[in-house]
Design a protein that fits this description.
By secondary structure, this protein is an alpha/beta fold. The protein has two domains: 37 residues, no CATH class; 183 residues, Rossmann fold. The protein is built from eight helices and seven strands, in the order ααββααβααβαββαβ. The strands form two sheets. Strands 1, 2, 3, 6 and 7 form a five-stranded parallel β-sheet that branches. α8 links the parallel β6 and β7. α3 packs across α4 and α4 crosses α6. The radius of gyration is 18 Å and the shape is globular. The termini are far apart. Bound molecules: zinc ion (ZN) (2 copies).
């Protein structure tokens, strides 16, 4: 803890990104209540990342990725953190989320010889925000895992906001247009903040596979149950 950080904490006490209450200590990143409330996911299906399949079939049975993992359910404190990352430009939150991911990464996904590739933002949204949440999370995760990052995917669809869009709307084929830019690395792990239906992740993986890339896994911070 630097003197400057302590001084800043006195002038403007940092708030918890989970509940926005003031943090007690300057080196605390999430309050004790939010730490206890983190919705960790139990290990489940290695292919889709769900702890249990609702219905009988794996929703990722025909996806272009064969392994998906997320440490959190997209609810409660994890949902607040994703919101803080997406909508309040809280970049230190990206490192906190990356720490949660790195600390609980399954053994099978450790020590990978792969490059992390963020799911690309829609251009209009990136322009509106001025930065890219999934890219920030991927950068933070790369630093934690000691893996390089390549932003080799671009989106060229004109889809509207995914948050709040109906499940059917998000499932619509052709809405998500992703292409590979430049020469992609041979082995990649695709990273996003939230794994919802998997349609965007699938489109990203399909574009990579078509370009001859081996997609090792898709990692996200939170999984919609
Ligand atoms: Zn809190
Ligand atoms: Zn599954």
């Amino acid at each position: 803890m630097s003197v400057l950080a302590e001084l800043l904490a006195v002038v403007a006490p940092p708030s918890c990104p989970g509940c926005r209450r003031a943090l007690m200590r300057a080196d605390e990143r999430l309050c004790a209540t939010c730490v206890r409330g983190l919705p960790w996911l139990l290990p489940g299906c290695a292919r889709c990342g769900l702890p249990v399949h609702r219905g009988s079939a794996c929703p990722a049975a025909s996806a272009a990725f064969s392994r998906a993992w997320a440490p959190m359910a997209y609810q409660g404190v994890a949902r607040q953190l994703v919101g803080a990352l997406k909508f309040r430009a809280a970049l230190p939150v990206a490192d906190l989320m990356a720490a949660h991911m790195a600390a609980t990464l399954p053994v099978a996904l450790r020590g990978l010889d792969a490059v992390l590739v963020p799911v690309p933002p829609q251009r209009a949204r990136r322009r509106a925000r001025g930065y890219d949440p999934a890219g920030c999370l991927t950068g933070a995760l790369g630093r934690r895992l000691g893996l390089p990052v390549a932003t080799c995917l671009v989106r060229s669809d004109r889809a509207g906001r995914q948050v709040g869009a109906g499940w059917r709307a998000r499932q619509e084929a052709g809405r998500i247009v992703v292409r590979v830019r430049g020469a992609p690395p041979p082995r990649v792990v695709v990273v996003d903040d939230v794994h919802t239906t998997g349609a965007t992740l699938d489109a990203c993986c399909r574009a990579l596979v078509d370009a001859g890339v081996r997609v090792v896994a898709v990692l996200s911070y939170a999984r919609t149950l």
